[in-house]
Amino acid sequence: MTRTSFGSRTSHRQAGAALVVGLLLLLVLTILAISGVNSTSLNMIMAGNTQFAQNAFQSAESGIEFSLAANKFNPDPNLAPETQTDNCFTAVSEVKLCGMPQPALPGSSLKSYSTYHFEIDSKGCAKREASARNMQALAVIAPADATVSPVANCPAGSGGLGTKLE
């Protein structure tokens, strides 16, 4: 049997090029891996922030619902606005249009009713300083009063719009 020697002729030509190419490829793969980890971490933080923003929004909505359930909606403009609070929301209900009932719109089939207008301003909070503010306007229907006319020029600070409705 004869022995064959491999590499005796080609070993002088390579001079370590495979090592340099291998290290460069390893460096590129390492940079790609680090950038992928950073991107994933940022996406997780953004998803968490979105979740906390949704929690704050839902807290503000809870304030509105709690206010609707617990509020008496007294139209007296001299009363202080009613406030409902919890550890995650603050809801303030105040009367609008000076607490005056508004007659039904002309041509309406609801001529035997008047409406009182209110507004609920609810602020919700969550972790990471997430906050949301939701406002809900509502009209409470009451029996009609023939002596009631639309509000004209509410005094400032009385919860009115300050303009004449027509």
A few lines on this structure:
With 166 residues, this protein is of the alpha+beta class.
Q: Nearest-angstrom radius of gyration?
A: 35 Å
- SSE pattern, N- to C-terminal: HHEEEEE
Any low-confidence stretches, pLDDT <50, length ≥5?
160-166
The main sheet comes to:
5 strands, antiparallel
- What is the count of helical runs? 2
Please tally the β strands and state the result: 5
**What is the averaged pLDDT score?**
81
Percent strand equals: 15-25%
Q: Helix/strand/pairing class, anyone?
A: alpha+beta
Q: Residue share in helices? A: 25-40%
Shape: rod-shaped
Distance between the termini: 116 Å
Name the descriptors:
166 residues, alpha+beta, 35% helix, rod-shaped, 5-stranded antiparallel β-sheet, 5 strands
What would you say this structure looks like, in words?
The protein has one domain. Helices cover 35% and strands 23% of the residues. A hairpin with a 5-residue loop joins strand 4 and strand 5. The chain is built from 2 helices and 5 strands. By secondary structure, the chain is an alpha+beta fold.
